[in-house]
Amino acid sequence: MTRLGFAEGDAVCVSTASDDGVTREIDGRRVHAFDIPRGCVMGFPLSHHAKESLVPASTSIPVRLRKSTGADEQVAA
Question: DSSP 3-state assignment of 3?
């Protein structure tokens, strides 16, 4: 996290790392350090899950992180 220029609690914009011409991103997420493999991020779109089991719809999606612009700030204070 630090080597990428992020500090604990920084607001970021998360976007899919796809090149299909469709912009998929959410701004205002917060970064937190966890003991997971280098180069990995963790997070689930809670609104996208199986109705019965509540299993996340996607478990492996390449993403890009950048510092938040604050334009779509969704972080509760």
Answer: helix
